[in-house]
Amino acid sequence: MDSQPQNRLKHSASPYLRSAAHQPIGWHEWGEEAFAQARAEDKPILLDIGAVWCHWCHVIDRESYENPEIAALINRLFIPVKVDRDERPDVDARYQAAVSAISGQGGWPLTGFLTPDGKPFFGGTYFPPEDAMGRPGFKRILTAVSDSFQNRRAEVEQAAVALSEAVAQSETFSGARGAFDPATVDEQINAILKLFDSRNGGFGRAPKFPHASAIDLLLEHFQQKKDTHLLEVVRSTLEHMGRGGVYDQLGGGFHRYSVDERWLVPHFEKMSYDNSELLRNYLHAFQVAGDPFFREIAEGIIGWVNEVLSDQPAGGFYASQDADVSLDDDGDYFTWTVDELRAVVSADQARVLELYYDVEAHGEMHHNPAKNVLWIARQPAEIANRLNVDETEVRLLIARGKEKLLAARRLRTAPFVDKTLYVAWNAMFVSAYLDASRVLQGEVAAGCRAFALKTLDRIIAETWTDDRGFLHRIGGPRLDGSLDDQVCAAHALFDAFELTLDPRYLRIAEQALDRVIGKYGDVEGGGFFDRSSAAPPMGGLEVRRKPIQDSPTPGSNSVAALALDRLYAYTADARYHQAAHATLEAFAGIASQLGLFAATYGLASVLHSRHTIQVIITGADGDSRAELLEEVAASVYRFGKAILRVTPERASQNSLPTPILEILPGLRPAEPQALVCIETTCQPPTSDPTLLASMLTGIVAEAASR
C-alpha cells in the first residue's frame, strides 16, 4: 500500500480528516493544491463532505474508501478531496445546495463530482459499494461519471455552469426583498402551529428535529398575547422531548434528532449547537411556566456539558460527541438490555426501572432487538399504584437505580468527543450559560457564569484581531471566521457586558459588527454574505451566499439583525438600526414561506419592532432589595431583555453606554429601584418586585414607525 495516501491527512487539524489518514486513497484537503492537480491531470474531483459524528460517513468510509478495489478506481480516475463540514461550513453549504438541486436531497456523507475548477455536475449522499435494491453501486457510479467527463465533456461542462448559476441565484435569495412588515411574525407562527404534532409534541413528522428558535418565538408571542394554546404547544414539545429517548435520561444532554414521531429512538450523536439552544428553551420555559421539570432538564444539559463537552481547565465547549464506538453498534453505549440493567441494580430497583424506562426483552434497536432506549414511559405515581407501594419509595428506587446505571455506563467505552473549539458554537454556549446564570440559583448558576466568562475571554485572546475579526476556531492552523462566528460572538459579548458591565465586551462587539457591515454587507441588496469580502478565494463553487434559514443553526442573517438592534440600543447610532432594517427587508418577501425554518427571522422581527427591553436596577452592591429586583427581572422571560445592574460605583465611573448615562441623572444609584426602558421611553422607576414583574409581562410589541 502506498504510504502517501495513508499519510496525507494525518496532520490535519480536523479529527474527521485524520480518521481517513489510513485509507488507501490520495485524499487532499480542500485547497488550491487539489484544484491545480485536477487541472494538470485533467481529471474530475471526487468530493466527500462529512463529519466525525456522522454514522453513514463512517459506513461509506469502511465500505468504499477502505476497499482497495474502489480506492484504486478513485485514485486512477479522480482527484479525491475530503472536507469536514464543521471545519468548512462555507464549502458544505454551497455543495449541499448543488447536490440537493441534482438529487432532491442533501445530507452527510455528501458525495459530489466536480470539474477541475470545482463546479459540481453530479452528486448524491451515501452510495452502497455494489448495486443493491435497484440502486447503482459506487463502483458503477465512479466509472460512469468518469466516462461522462472524458467522453461527453461539453454536456458535463454545460450542466456544471447551469447548476452553478442556479446555486448562485438561490443562495443569494434573489427576488426575496420586500417591505418589512411585523405582521409577518403572525404568518410565521400560524405556519408553525399548522405543523404542530398535538399527540407527540414537536413539528412535522418523522424524523423529528428540535426547532429551538420556534420555541422561543412561541414563548415570546405567548407573553404578548396570553394565548394559552401557544404555551401548550411549547409545553407539549419540551415535555415529550425531555421524557423521550432523544434526551439522554442518564447522562443528560440531547441527541441530534429522533428517527420516530414520538421522540423515542434518536440518532445518538450529540451536537454542541443543539444543546446550547435547547438549554435556553428549557430555561425560558421554566421562566414562563415555572415547571420544575424544565429546570431539571436544563440542569441535566449543563451537567452533561460540564462532564463531557467542555474544556474545564482552560474554558471552551467541544464540538460534538459521536453516536457510536464502532460501526458494529448503533448507540450501544447509551442503550440497555434487560440483562444489562439487572446486572447493575438491585431486584427492587430493576422492577421499578423497567417500568419507568420501558425496558423489555424486546427493545427498539433494529441491529440488536434486545437493546432498549431509555425513555420515561410511566410516572412514579402510576408505578406506585401498579406495584402497590409508596410513591416516595418508587422515586427513591428510581434515583438510586439511575445513579448505578450511570456509574456502570461510565465504565463502557464512550463514543469519541470532537474537542475542536468552533467560535460560533462556543459563543452560542457562552450565551446559554450566561442565561442559565441569571435564571438558575446557587452553585450551578455561579459555575455557569464563571465558565462562560472564562470561555469568552479565551475566544477574545486566541481568535480576535482588530483587522480580521474572529477566527473560525480556537487552535490549529489559522482559519478565517464566517459571518456566524462574528455575529454569534457579538451576542455573547453583549450578554457578558450585561452581566458584568465591563466596557471591553461592548467595545469589541461594536468593532465586530462594524466589520460585519463593512466586509460582509450587501450594499445593494441588504443583508450579509457568509464570507468576508477580505477572505481569500474559497476555490470551487465561488458564489456569494446570504444564509437565512435555521438549518441546523440559527440563520446568520437573522442573528446579525438581532445583534445590530442590540447594539443600537446601547449606542443610539441609527446606522445599526438601519442595517438591521435592511437585513430584514432583504428576506421579507420569503420569510412567511420559510415559516418554521426561519423562526429566528421572526425573533429578529419582534426585536426590531419592539426594541430591546432594558431593565436598569440601581442600589448598592449587596443590597438585598436590589438583589430581589434583579432576581425578579431575571425570572421573567421576554426575548431581547437586558438586565443592567448599576451600583453607585459603576454609575460614577462613566463607563456605561451614553443612552444609559443620560437616564441615570433622574435616578438615585444608591437606592434600590428598577427602571424599565424601551429605546428612549422609560416607565416610572419602581422598588416593588411584583410591579416590576407585571411591567415586564405587560410589554407588547408595536410596529416600528420607521
Task: Draw up the topology in text.
Layout: H1 3-7, H2 15-18, H3 32-41, E1 45-50, H4 55-65, H5 68-77, E2 79-84, H6 89-103, E3 110-114, E4 120-124, H7 138-151, H8 153-171, H9 184-194, H10 212-225, H11 228-243, E5 257-258, E6 266-267, E7 270-271, H12 272-289, H13 292-308, E8 320-321, H14 338-344, H15 347-356, H16 380-387, H17 391-410, E9 417-418, E10 421-422, H18 423-439, H19 442-463, E11 464-465, E12 469-470, E13 473-474, H20 483-500, H21 503-520, H22 556-571, H23 574-586, H24 591-594, H25 599-610, E14 613-618, H26 624-635, E15 641-646, H27 648-652, H28 658-663, E16 673-678, E17 681-682, H29 689-697
Parallel strand pairs: 1-2, 14-15
Antiparallel strand pairs: 1-3, 3-4, 5-6, 7-8, 8-9, 10-13, 11-12, 14-16, 16-17
Helix pairs in contact: 5-7, 6-8, 9-25, 10-11, 10-12, 10-25, 11-12, 12-13, 12-18, 15-17, 16-17, 18-19, 18-20, 20-21, 20-22, 21-22, 22-23, 22-25, 23-25, 26-29
> What multimeric state do the chains show?
single chain
Number of helical segments with 4 or more residues:
29
What share of residues are in beta strands? Answer: 5-15%
What integer value in Å does the Rg equal? 26 Å
| CATH top-level class of the largest domain | Mainly Alpha
Strand order of the largest sheet: 2-1-3-4
Q: So, CATH architecture of the largest domain?
A: Alpha/alpha barrel
Mean pLDDT: 94
Supply the helix-strand structural class: alpha+beta
> Span from first to last CA?
68 Å
The name CATH uses for the topology of the largest domain is Glycosyltransferase
Helix content: 40-55%
Report on the biggest sheet.
Answer: 4 strands, mixed
Q: Can you tell me the overall shape?
A: globular
State the total count of DSSP E strands.
17
Number of folding domains? 4
pLDDT < 50 stretches: 1-5, 702-706
